[in-house]
TrEMBL record:
It comes from Massilia horti. Signal peptide: none annotated. This is Pyrimidine 5'-nucleotidase. InterPro entries: HAD-like_sf, HAD-SF_hydro_IA, HAD_sf, Pyr-5-nucltdase. It holds the Pfam family Hydrolase.
Length: 246
């Protein structure tokens, strides 16, 4: 009997600094909003907290919980919806979104279903995807509000959330390919048996959180199957990801 064709992959695409250059203008605006928000929460009700206190809380919570928001919720009882709304109020995205051409054509060339998986909120990520002209190419759009496990917010790199996502969409881990710029998220996915593609072109040494050391930028970690500068290089790397060309 002829061998049946292997099941097609399911692509999980990150958004910021993967499909567009968020570090160009959007991340600086979000960063400024986040600093203002945290300073107000950590302040005494009259005077905002110092930049030193803000930086310590922001980076400390990010390292401890994987997302600054989770620390703000746990230690300062902030509303996740309020935090996400205020920090992602960045003005006219049409003037800020910067990306390569040909992304829609790229998604059409990749075999299998595509799911957007972003730690950004729905209102923000939906608008960015619309500006990129990619909204019709994703079967599902999973934003941070959708990343709850047992009524607790569990954004990337939560393995609990990733396992639940795979179960919900009936995808075996080896069929899933996470395309990301963030190594911590790729490492968690690889530990679950997913395949991983690391996108590096939008990484910035000056990003306030998650600064990538130059040595790490030059070296592909063992939990990364494919390292590409641009997502447009993915079709050429399908064999390395164990995917047959259509």
């Amino acid at each position: 009997m002829p061998k049946s064709a292997p099941p097609s992959p399911v692509w999980l695409f990150d958004l910021d600094n993967t499909l567009h250059d968020a570090s160009h203008a959007i991340f600086p605006a979000i960063s400024a909003n986040m600093n203002t928000y945290i300073a107000r929460v950590l302040g005494d009700g009259v005077t905002p907290a110092s930049q030193e206190a803000v930086d310590a809380a922001r980076l400390g919570y990010w390292k401890r919980y994987g997302a600054t928001l989770l620390g703000m919720i746990r230690h300062h009882q902030v509303s996740a919806a309020d935090f996400l709304r205020e920090t992602h109020d960045v003005g006219l995205l049409a003037d800020m979104v910067k990306a390569e051409r040909g992304l829609a054509r790229l998604l059409r060339r990749l075999p299998g279903r595509k799911i957007l998986l972003t730690n950004g909120p729905t209102h923000y990520s939906s608008e960015v995807v619309r500006h990129l002209g990619l909204h019709r190419h994703f079967a599902h759009h999973i934003a941070i509000e959708d990343m709850t496990v047992h009524r607790h917010l569990r954004p990337k790199p939560s393995k609990l959330m990733l396992r639940r996502l795979l179960r919900r969409h009936q995808v075996a881990a080896p069929r899933a390919i996470l395309v990301e710029d963030t190594l911590a998220n790729l490492k968690a996915a690889r530990q679950l048996g997913m395949r991983t593609a690391w996108v590096t072109q939008y990484l910035r040494m000056s990003d306030p959180i998650g600064r990538a050391k130059l040595a790490r930028l030059l070296t592909r970690p063992n939990f990364v199957d494919v390292k590409v500068k641009s997502v447009r290089q993915l079709p050429a790397r399908l064999p390395a990801l164990g995917v047959r060309r259509g």
